[in-house]
């Protein structure tokens, strides 16, 4: 009660002190405390091997009252499999005993105990094997220091009893070799230093099973495990690896064969309610036996079973599976093997009968379904046993040899011990018999053993005491009359690199419900390209919805987690699985608008040329002469350029066309307007010249006119050159306006440049308009100023409307608007200034006289 401060160390110290005191006093004595245990099978020899097998697979569950000493465990359900294992051990022992090569002159004996698969009994048995406490010589006081009774222990079959035994004997370094305990936990040499086995660890099996499940694309599986070390550890590793391989478990349930039926009922309900079609079962054959009855009772068919080696190649399970629930199952088994002579030896059961052997009687009775000594009162009368029954013709799990690979494991284990002893006793023709055998040395020898069996199989252990991990992949293929073939469809070899470990042969597999198609077991179907996975809330990662990628995003693999955005020049296609180049939008010659504008431009050019031709033909006539023919031709020339420059706006923008566009337009228009301005000035001047005392005309003669046109144009040229040098327009792509189209356009480079060019044109146009407006009322029979005013009105109107349209309309429409403005204003000038004159020249030649030109007050022509 005093001791929460003084924990166990203090207590241990006290004990140690006590021991020291006692040992000083006298040699300690050992007393038999519990009830003695006698082995079920026993034979004396120079060297004795221990064996632990669960000849019974269950025991009667008893409620302990803690009022008296618990009764010994009452074992039930005789298990013939374990008799087979024991027979294999005896066979190996006898073979070695007979052999003159291995341990010559040394006779081997054995002590074999039944553990019933119970952990408590296993511990008891382990102590019995080490102490040899079966002799009752009450009140005996034997000295404590004596060698172990057995040199090595073969067994157990299941992992849980094996861990119990290995824990007990570990500190004494008594070697234990199991033929079927696969729990990966047993590889831990700090806990089980003396444990070895001839079956691969579940460390590999769980990995192999996970890879197998992954191989067939089952990402949504249920799991059933035996609630013992085998199932729990194996399943834990499986789940860990499965998670790495993106496999999800819908449920993972455990049960044990002695569980009450309501617990099993709950498990059945879980399976019934599940949506996964694949069940991974980490069960021993005994657990599967119980489970299969329950499943048959509930007609739970249609599931694809994936099994551990505990049951997958057990023909006994196949035999009781009358509803074909497990047909098509796939799983791992240890590779097929054969031990010659074993079957004949095994069938000879008589030698198992040592005198007064209760278990042998039970075995015999169960084997032949008869009874010795039947009490007449019992309700069901069975056949009487004669003791002369014959095994030939008996069909049960004792005569079934499908577990030969495991028998081989037992056989190899015994041989490993024999080889170790052989080298320890430095046997040549004879062995040194009087050597004191030390368990730790035997253990070291066994760990380093490397030999070949008579059937050519290599036996050795790695540093964890495990053999090399090789499995066959077994498929249950139903044949006629309900017989199931265990077809080997592949191999798993853990010693190879990860991608080669699983090697499925090209044989046709048969799946659940006799199907040729690989069953599908997924929580959600794969997300096709063009979609991405979105996990469902609160569900495992294998359950997800597929969401279509947004516009401009794609996913080009199945089961993509994200959608990737396309680069700026690209856009997603309709299926969202590829980026396609965006459609480039620009005003081209091919499309209707481009073609119309081109036609209009060419038409304008032709018309200008025609007018020029008419003027040239009639250059001597007064009307042409009167109207300052030089400027007129220059104007016609610049108008031609204006019409033509609109063509530079059509077509895919290039570096050159961008630079040309605005500058050519700016310069030709300035040239054009400066000509008009010149003409207006001439009209104004001419009027002033007619006034008396004016010699304005001298100051504004043809030379000055030419110069002023040149000068005005030069300013625009300089503006354009500056623009081109400082920040020229360049082709650019506009991604903003449309999501799925690229607008190819010319960026201005410098907005100032652009507006300066336009502004200069505007300035000249306004100036021209004002002059023309002033001159419009001047008396002249053919007053050009009126037409110029009108044309400038059109010009200004067009350009004023152009500006808002240009600013607001995106892409190619702004280009079209600009071209339209150019064409409209050019046509305006051409029509207003030249058509009336052409009309007179061509249709009213009578008016084309000098008199008419100069005549004042005469009838106006328009
Ligand atoms: C081993 O051989 C000896 C004789 O050499 C024999 O007495 C003994 O019974 C044999 N043991 C077994 C297990 O066969
Ligand atoms: C051992 O030898 C005996 C007699 O020589 C023989 O009957 C028996 O079958 C042999 N056992 C084995 C396992 O070879
Ligand atoms: C199972 O199926 C059999 C016949 O196929 C039927 O008689 C039995 O009632 C079914 N059992 C259950 C639990 O559905
Ligand atoms: C087992 O051996 C005992 C004595 O050796 C004998 O009485 C008994 O009948 C034998 N049992 C069988 C089943 O042969
Ligand atoms: C058969 O029963 C008698 C008495 O009922 C008993 O003496 C005898 O030992 C029993 N034999 C066996 C083999 O159990
Ligand atoms: C066994 O004896 C033979 C000769 O009888 C000898 O050549 C051989 O080296 C010996 N082997 C061992 C391991 O002592
Ligand atoms: C497997 O068999 C199928 C047809 O039976 C064949 O088309 C395929 O090529 C084979 N694959 C391999 C790897 O041999
Ligand atoms: C998927 O797209 C990426 C880039 O978007 C590309 O590198 C890859 O090759 C594509 N994969 C397939 C299978 O098309």
UniProtKB/TrEMBL annotation:
GO terms for cellular component: plasma membrane. Residues 1-25 form the signal peptide. Residues 593-857 form the G-protein coupled receptors family 3 profile domain. The lineage of its organism: Eukaryota, Metazoa, Chordata, Craniata, Vertebrata. It is found in: Cell membrane. This is G-protein coupled receptors family 3 profile domain-containing protein. GO terms for molecular function: G protein-coupled receptor activity. Belongs to the G-protein coupled receptor 3 family.
